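<context>
A single protein, sequence plus fold
<sample>
Here is the protein in question:
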Amino acid sequence: MLGKTTRDRKAERRTATRREIIDAAWRLAREKGLAQVTLRDVAELVGMRAPSLYSHFASKNAIYDAMFGDAWTRYHEHSQAAAADEPDTSRAAMRFYARVFFDFAVEFPARHQLMNLRTLPDFTPSTEAYAPSVAVMEDFVARMTRHGAGGPDEIALFTGLVSGMVDAQLANDPGGDRWSRLLDRAIDMFADNVGITDEETRP
């Protein structure tokens, strides 16, 4: 019959199982810490024997790799959805970019560690897993460029500033708001430094 498609049910089941394994690893990372994720514990959560995981992931680092790509994919989707609320003026927009990232990062410290810190010294993301983070940065640079602050130094200063605020919040006031309350002031300092005023509106 014309238009008839054949479902690959085996592939669908495999994808669903991989998703279940990744979700279980995130659960363990949240409960025990990123470095405490073990193949045995992941297998137990998904109801399979540890050796069976190897048919889906060759090693624990392979699970971390999938988690890395998953985290940046989720952030990309999150930031894209948030874009509907982006302010029109440049300084307010920069505060908005910082807030979207800051809140996403502090909501799940273990995820932030995997995305942005070298918490696992023997882990390096694959090109495939790294691709969503590249897409996020390209989108961010494009947005900052619209506001006249998309140069390499400006991007490095902004990301370093916001990342530092995230790390200070998580290290010194986890669950609190000490650095969260200071975030807008920090971005205003950045805007002052690069010459962005409250009145500027960019297309």
User: Anything to note?
Assistant: The CA atoms of residues 149 and 194 lie 7 Å apart. The first helix runs from residue 9 to 32.
